[in-house]
Design brief:
WalJ/YycJ-like, hydrolase, 9 helices, seven-stranded mixed beta sheet, hydrolase activity, MBL fold metallo-hydrolase, alpha/beta
């Protein structure tokens, strides 16, 4: 059994992650326009109409911009928890009732040999949650848009084969940037986004013997850079005795360019 995934887009301008097994394929969020989403799928040689469904993490526009268009055009099942459905009302246009499915937080749904588990994160949305994909012994964890990684979360997401993990900002860059203080306070707070260093500390605590790769995701366009995120995370991991390039590999994600479709 093999699971493949690609981070199609990641960042404040739009987020989308594709995951497939031999039997099923899912899109997690569609935070870009329908046309942009179609372009991203073509770059990994996959078709949106073949999806088993779309999983929604929360109602912020960089995660749901294309949800309504894709739902209507391709008649796809859409999964979200009830509070997120309520928060999306009026933001995604009309979606037929038979396409709307409830996916409660801290539960799992099973699709043949694929199990998808939801878990809560700390973010300023109605009821934000992310997903873990299980197939046999394989485990893929997706976790961004959280102000911190709690001990509860660490227990749930531990020892995955691969992680798509938020590394949003450099604290120094954020403090010095042009943002109003209320925006800085939101990002730095418990319901905002996790920094490079804090992300790396959490990574060091959840990594296990199976863990091979971590994709640094949801980087701020204004307050982070790919090289800086990689360097900061690498230094923090190595201070914990984890050697990047030997025990673990770090990968970039991009707001516009999908990562290669890889197997775990």
């Amino acid at each position: 059994m093999t699971m493949h995934f690609s981070v199609l887009a990641s960042g404040s301008t739009g987020n989308a992650i594709f995951v497939e097994t031999e039997e099923h394929s899912f899109l997690v969020d569609a935070g870009l326009s329908g046309k942009q989403m179609e372009g991203l799928f073509s770059r990994i040689d996959r078709k949106i109409e073949d999806l088993s469904g779309i999983l929604v993490t929360h109602e912020h526009s960089d995660h749901i911009k294309g949800i309504g268009v894709l739902a209507r055009k391709y008649k796809l099942p859409i999964y979200a928890n009830d509070k997120t459905w309520n928060a999306m009302d009026g933001l995604v246009g009309k979606i037929d009732t038979e396409q709307k499915f409830s996916f409660d937080m801290e539960t799992a749904k099973h699709f043949g040999g694929l199990s998808i588990e939801s878990f809560g994160v700390s973010h300023d949305a109605a009821e934000p949650m992310f997903y873990i994909f299980h197939q046999g012994e394989k485990k893929l964890v997706l976790v961004t848009d959280t102000g911190y990684v709690s001990d509860r979360m660490k227990g749930i997401i531990s020892n995955a084969d691969a992680y798509v993990f938020e590394s949003n900002h450099d604290v120094g860059m954020l403090r010095m940037c042009r943002y109003p203080w209320n925006i800085k306070r939101r990002i730095l707070g418990d319901y905002g986004h996790v920094s490079n260093e804090d992300a790396a500390v959490a990574m060091s605590e959840v990594m296990g013997d199976k863990t091979k790769g971590i994709y640094l995701a949801h980087l701020s366009l204004d307050n982070n850079m790919k090289d800086l995120a990689r360097m900061s995370v690498s230094q923090t991991l190595e201070s914990k005795g984890i050697v990047v390039g030997e025990q673990i590999d770090l990968f970039d994600t991009d707001p516009k360019v999908p990562t290669p479709l890889v197997a775990i």
